[in-house]
Amino acid sequence: MFSTGPRIYAAGAAHIDRRAISDSPYVPRASNPGRLVDCPGGSAFNAVQAMVQAGAGVSLHSARGGDPDGRRVTEAILALGVTDLSVTWLDRTTPTYTAVLDDKGELVAGIADMALYDLMVPRLFTRSAVRTAIARADGILVDANLPAASIAAVTGQAAGKPVAAIGVSPAKIGRLQDSLGGITALFLSYAEAASLVEATIGTSPQLIAELLSELGVQRAVVTDGPREAMILDGQTVLLQQPPTVVPKDITGAGDNLAGTAFAMLCAGTPFLDAVRAGIVAASLRISSEPTLLEELAHRIAEGVAALHEPRRPETAS
Hints:
The chain is of the alpha/beta class and about 325 residues long. The protein has a single domain (about 5-305), classed as Ribokinase (UDP-N-acetylmuramoyl-L-alanine:D-glutamate ligase). It contains nine helices and 15 strands. The strands form three sheets. The chain has a nine-stranded mixed beta sheet with strand order 6-4-1-10-11-12-13-14-15, sandwiched between helices. The chain has a four-stranded mixed beta sheet with strand order 3-2-8-9. It is globular, with a radius of gyration of 18 Å. It starts with 6 loop residues before the first strand and ends in an 11-residue tail after the last helix. The mean pLDDT is about 95.
């Protein structure tokens, strides 16, 4: 199912994700029994993992501190077989994301300590190794942890190549605003989409799609947890119900979708087919134990075959 070979340059977050997971129904403002887990993560890192699994060759450009967390991230990137173009500030600490999850794996609260990424200013993207990686890439992926000016600098170097962007959060989605015309595929949550188009929560997917189109967005995937994902492809708007799964941990699901779909798009897969595969890959990530790479393509293919066909959203009468 996957075509091997596309080379992708990714820029954005690669840090440590820490999760406090409740073992029983979460009670606010109380001590909840549970467990703590941590591992390398971040939007760009999670997407890179998925792209590697999809057969892509990837260069990752991120930022970290000169601390033990930074060394863990370095080792994780090397273990993926990814070219590491990241910058290390020896006197800084590596960014972290701390999440509190309920017993169903749903997010209760999250705190993102990401200030270091604000130091990834445009001049860091003029380094020779970075310019070479972008020039050789078949596609470029960025996340909204980068400063707006840096996102614009990277998309400006794309020279017509496919560019994907991950929204990250409602607080940061605006950083993509000035670069939307150069973004081939936008991956974001419903809350991020509503923030971007300045709509209220509860706005219909059809109207969200229309407002995204008015901003110049040609292709987008808007996810909303277990509910239908909205897929915008030019003038076509479709709703795709994801597989029904019991989530163990939802962290990184949208990034996994974006990485899988974009790698397949860069390999020549039609956008809708790539997105449907990404939806299945994300469902596998949140509901399964780690899957052997040689089994993953088969499991995704089975999942896509079992998906209901996407439907068009209902229009208001």
